[in-house]
Amino acid sequence: MKEIEKNINGRDLRIGIVQSRFNTEVCEGLLGACRAQLVKQGVRDDDIMLATVPGALEIPLVLQRMAQSGKFDALIALGAVIRGDTYHFEVVANESARCVGEVQLHTGIPVANAILTTDTDEQAIERMHVKGGEAALVAIEMVNLLRGLT
Predict the structure, then answer these.
(1) pLDDT by residue (tens digit) across 56-107?
(2) Which residues are CB-neighbours of 147 under 8 A, at least 6 positions away?
(3) 88 is catalytic
(4) Which of 21, 71, 88, 98 is flagged as catalytic?
């Protein structure tokens, strides 16, 4: 049996990040961890592009445009949707996740989804560093996996 091995070498990869500005503290924490992990895996800082948007529902449109540009090997979505007292949480959490998934399926560009969905601010703050770093690793691994399939 031939197996494609996990490869998290980010050298020469071009990564696009779309970050929500809503829940700023959490999103900045996600970005810091993500960027640090990308650089640790060999992605040059000059090969990372960041676009910010008002909230999680705006992330997929910018991801789609970035994917269609041909300038990126992988994309990363960063945001935080924290439960409130209304149904709005479910709408934003579900629709942003669905649309992020559609971008990668329609374009063939891997998208790591690090839009946190939590019940409280404390949960989001607790998860932001881990999830940001994981998103970087997922993006790199998926590019290398897809390249190994061709």
Answers:
(1) 999 999 999 999 999 999 999 999 999 987 778 999 999 999 999 999 999 9
(2) none
(3) yes
(4) 88
